[in-house]
Amino acid sequence: MARRRCGAGRGAPRRRSRDGLRQRRARLHARRTRAARAARAARRPRPRPRQRQRHPRHRRRPPRRRLRDRHRDRPRSERGRRPQRGAQRRRRPRPVPRGRRGAARAARRAGRPPLLEHPPHRQRRAPPGHPHVARARRARDLLRHGGGGGRPLPPRAHGRRLAGDGRGDRRRLVGRGREGRVIHVLLEAGTPCAEGAPLPLPDDEAHHLHVRRVAAGEAVALLDGEGLEARGTLRWDGKRAVVDVREVRHLPPPPATVLGVGAGDRERLAFVAEKAAELGVTDLVPLETAHARAVATRLRVEQVDRLGRRAREATKQCGNPWAPRVHRLQPLETWLAGPLPPLRWLADGAGTPPAAELGAEAVAVAVGPEGGFAATERGALLVAGFLPVALGPHILRLETAALAAAAAVLTARARGLR
Fold first, then answer.
1. How far apart are CA 111 and CA 153, in angstroms?
2. DSSP structural state of residue 306
3. Kind of pairing, strands 141-145 and 151-152?
4. Is 0.70 topped by the overall pTM?
5. What's the start-to-end Cα distance of the chain, in Å?
6. Which of 361, 300, 374 is nearest to 333 (CA)?
7. What separation in angstroms does the CA of 400 have from each of 174, 298, 343?
8. What CATH superfamily is the domain 257-416?
9. Are the C-beta atoms of residues 55 and 129 closer than 8 Å to each other?
């Protein structure tokens, strides 16, 4: 059977070129190509794999508007936004009078330099002993009103607090923090510090002060974690921070509080080290116990230094001149064989309530890991002279029991030494 050529009829004569060679027509005929395209467009495409076949009359649901497109329909021009801004401003509470803007516009027309929103001149402080400034925790003394072109605030507004209900309220008010704030700076142990001598701060502490936006002339407290407490004034030498020391004190160590904690989860122990510095713990001893060895995320030997760093950083936040000493990881038997204070507590739910008053005597407290101490370990602690003390009617986690014991010692000492 002879093969039919594309585009030629049955009785059509075969064409030859001038050189006598027979030629074939192209397979992609223009008319047939257009017809095929139209037919493919009329057919509905097949569904993709793992895609259900929809009804021919199915109409897709309009897509949900994303959160970032929620303002797409609002007018973008300044003229279209004016009515919307006016409605927002009318709803906002105004703790201080806004003032007129005509003075600022008239000053610009007169050729004067534009007024600052935070003008440094003609500032007025709140009167000493003002009840709002003295009692409020984060009270601010209002200085200027930026929305009114830098006009001074009326005297009755200087004791008010900044309102945070609207975006424009805090932007148009100029305030100053409460007087007398002190920024704590942590020095390396053994750093020489003398009265009347300038002390350059380390780069990390200078960066911390720069981030906190501590200005030159503000008061700074220097701590080293070993009893040093110095006061001075900050000044900037380029990017270097220098403190002019004016007072140096070496405080005596507090009564010893030794906290032995089962070395369970390392993150929980890091939290205990941080809060132990705030509660006045002097020694933190991680202990290897039977139940602690079964914890997958338990503290390792190489991770003990991290606990010491967390404890020193906590002293800078709370202002404790003595940072807790974090001992090496050791078994419970080794800790019991070493020197311990005569007064010893064991955190145990079946014990008696702790003492209500304590003097300046040293205290050692043992807190078990997740699951508590084993029976043999509890027996060894009782033989060593530890008194079972109940810290609450419920089962406490590792970090909760450790902090509750430290807080009980701190409270009993405060009652006994007052």
1. 25
2. H
3. antiparallel
4. no
5. 120
6. 374
7. 43, 17, 21
8. SPOUT methyltransferase, trefoil knot domain (3.40.1280.10)
9. no
pLDDT band at residue 238 using 50, 70 and 90 as cut-offs:
confident
Rounded-to-integer distance, Cα 319 and Cα 113, Å: 46
Tens digits of residue pLDDT in 138-177 = 444 444 444 444 455 555 554 444 444 444 444 444 444 4
Residue among 343, 352, 349 at smallest CA distance from 396: 349
With beta carbons less than 8 A apart as the criterion, state whether 170 and 162 touch: yes
Is the Cβ–Cβ distance between 95 and 160 less than 8 Å?
yes
| Confidence at residue 140, expressed as pLDDT on a 0 to 100 scale | 46
Residue 294 CA to residue 43 CA, distance in Å, equals 67
Name the packing angle between helices 266-278 and 304-318 (round to 10°). 30
Domain 257-416 in the same topology as domain 183-250:
no
Residue 22, token pair as written in the block: 């027979």
336 is written with which tokens? 């019991």
Q: How far is CA 211 from the centre of its chain?
A: 14
CATH number of 183-250, picked from 3.40.350.10, 3.30.70.360, 2.40.240.20, 3.40.50.2000:
2.40.240.20
**Residue entry with tokens 């921070």:** 241
Q: What is the pLDDT of residues 391-400, one digit of tens each?
A: 988 889 999 9
